[in-house]
Design a protein that fits this description.
five-stranded parallel sheet, globular, binds D-mannonic acid, disordered C terminus
Length: 542
């Protein structure tokens, strides 16, 4: 059997594999990280490794926490926390290029579900100075449209009653902080690295809302002493595949049970508001700013928004990866136009946005054929992803009376995607925390459409769908949005993705009137204006 990657085998790795440039034996824990997935291991753990190498301040070791699954713990424990980060892109000749680095900043991995008390103890441990999070959007137990804590979430309800065995990240944090305060320990920083608008402010308000149900004095202590910097992280990190494991193991000459594969591009911007110090992350290229929210908005709208559009439309066309989706000319053109005409204009006020460069870089990044980024990975959990990625942009555009048809097509694509079947008839599962209510919503919308007069059916369907407040908030009350959604959904349903893409590309003058009667007519007219096309080859076996 092949030897395992671990402290002992580290020194025997090939010379072209980078290794931790500090004495791991002297490392002490300073960070507790909730959500030890590939994303964290491809940015924060790497940046901490590089920061410790540069500063030789070895007090920032990471105690990683998986909230539920033992898989990462089981893979990394025999490896003494070591794993390989592979950065992949294409070389000049069009082949794949891969650089490998073994990251040493993770000291230990714990599984919260198995032993929540051990995690609470670590939060209330004197040397812990940062608690960071990559728990994905849904991990915050908030309502997507408003950002408010969902008091009907079973884990939140459970955690209000169970200070010793919390299940949710929010419950875990608040009960851990309560213990910390009881013990008279110093405050710390809670650092969200997830794709939420104002992720630090959002985390803070969720933590304070939960704490307030328990103890007013605790709420005051957290508010006065702990900090919640906003941050923006940008790096594409697909889920690791078996073939990645096999390839990397072969290059290392020892087995790495769970390496992480990412693109070379990394951009991490953080507000420099740390209650108890931080690693010298600037040594790893991290940018510190006074206010990160404009960077978050820029990234959510210009990277994640087009990502979601590409993923849902791509899935419908049968594209398995983001790269395959971006290779469909009509889809690539659509995403490009979406950024140019409807997203970028909402970001004009952002200083140094460099929107043109941002757009071009986005396209180059999705073109990275050396990275296998599944469309389904991006499309999953879209009920939580769409509000900051696309719906906030739509609100801004509506305020200015601006065209939203491409944004509406992206949203319609998601609703159409939720039917669970692509245009080739292949079925796929809907992975979304709101999958059950969304399935009921689709059924209700069908019933409403069937009950309506034929000319009103599309509009009635869109009214029901856009009326789903947990995702759309009050957008369902905006006639222009409902009409645009109705038109795009109808085109998708009747004529398919490629036709919908062509229709939005060729109809630049389409203006939807603001009064609701005219809107319904416009919706019908828009759908009807799109004459059924001859189906084109999409390069996807269609
Ligand atoms: C993607 C992101 O999975 C998704 O929803 O849009 O994870 C994206 O790859 C990263 O945010 C890029 O920084």
């Amino acid at each position: 059997m092949l030897e395992r990657l671990n402290t002992e085998s580290l020194s025997r790795l090939p010379a072209d594999v980078e290794k931790p440039a500090y004495d791991r034996g002297r490392l002490t824990p300073g960070i507790v990280h909730l959500g030890l997935g590939a994303f964290h291991r491809a940015h924060q753990a790497l940046a901490t490794d590089l920061a410790m190498a540069a500063s030789q301040d070895l007090t920032w070791g990471i105690l990683g926490v998986s909230l539920r699954s033992p898989a990462t713990r089981d893979a990394l424990t025999p490896q003494d926390g070591l794993y390989t980060l592979s950065l992949r892109d294409g070389d000049e000749a069009g082949g794949a290029r891969e650089s490998l680095r073994v990251v040493g900043s993770v000291l230990r991995v714990m599984v919260a579900q198995e032993d929540p008390q051990a995690v609470l103890e670590r939060i209330a441990y004197p040397q812990t100075r940062i608690i960071s999070l990559t728990i994905t959007e849904k991990g915050y137990c908030h309502e997507p449209a408003t950002g408010h804590l969902r008091w009907d979430d079973p884990d939140i309800l459970h955690d209000l009653e169970n200070p010793v065995r919390p299940r949710s990240a929010i419950g875990m944090l608040v009960h851990g902080l309560a213990l910390r305060r009881e013990r008279g320990l110093p405050p710390l920083t809670l650092l969200s690295c997830d794709n939420l608008q104002a992720n630090g402010d959002t985390l803070r308000s969720l933590v304070l809302a939960f704490a307030l149900r328990l103890d007013v004095a605790l709420t005051g202590w957290i508010d006065a002493h702990c900090t919640f910097p906003n941050s923006m992280v940008d790096r594409t990190v697909p889920a690791t595949r078996d073939e990645d494991r096999a390839r990397i193991t072969q290059r290392l000459g020892v087995e790495d049970a769970w390496p992480v594969v990412a693109e070379p591009y990394l951009n991490w911007v953080i507000e420099d508001k740390f209650a108890a110090g931080r690693p010298a992350w600037e040594a790893a290229g991290v940018t510190f700013v006074a206010n990160a929210t404009p960077y978050e908005r820029l990234k959510l709208r210009m990277v994640n928004g087009p990502h979601s559009a590409l993923a849902c439309l791509g899935t419908l066309l049968g594209a398995a990866t983001m790269h395959e989706a971006a290779a469909v000319p009509a889809l690539r053109g659509f995403v490009d136009d979406l950024m140019r005409h409807e997203i970028a204009p909402t970001l004009k006020g952002i200083p140094d946005a460099g929107l043109e460069g941002y757009r071009q870089r986005f396209l180059a990044r999705v073109d990275n054929a050396a990275l296998s980024h599944p469309t389904r990975q991006v499309a999953m959990d879209s009920s939580y992803k769409l509000p900051p990625r696309l719906l906030a942009t739509i609100r801004d555009r509506l305020r200015g009376g601006d065209d939203i048809r491409r944004l509406a097509l992206a949203v319609a694509a998601w609703l159409h995607y939720l039917r669970g079947e692509d245009e080739n008839g292949a079925r796929y599962p809907i992975e979304d925390p709101l999958a059950a209510p969304l399935a009921r919503l689709l059924a209700r919308a069908d019933v409403a459409a069937r009950a309506a007069a034929p000319k009103q059916a599309a509009h009635r369907r869109a009214l029901v769908l856009a009326g789903y407040r947990p995702v759309f908030g009050d957008l369902g009350e905006k006639p222009v949005f409902v009409a645009a959604l109705a038109a795009q959904l109808e085109t998708l349903r009747e004529h398919g993705v490629l036709h919908a893409l062509q229709a939005v590309a060729r109809d630049p003058e389409l203006i939807v009137p603001a009064d609701s009667e005219g809107v319904a007519e416009a919706a019908e007219a828009t759908a009807a204006a799109a004459a059924p096309p001859a189906r084109e080859a999409a390069g996807l076996g269609m």
